[in-house]
Design goal:
Length: 44
């Protein structure tokens, strides 16, 4: 399972919009890159 949100990481107080306040998450750009890499690997 991969946890993804708008921004990388997590925060204790909701100060940064789009950053998780629960678990560390991959940001949107990193999630997109990872999905593309997985797709490329599986379609070889």
């Amino acid at each position: 399972m991969i946890e993804s949100y708008l921004a990388d990481g997590r925060q204790n107080q909701p100060e940064v919009f789009g950053c998780s306040i629960t678990d560390p998450c991959l940001g949107w750009e990193n999630t997109e890159a990872l999905v593309e890499e997985i797709y490329a690997t599986l379609t070889k």
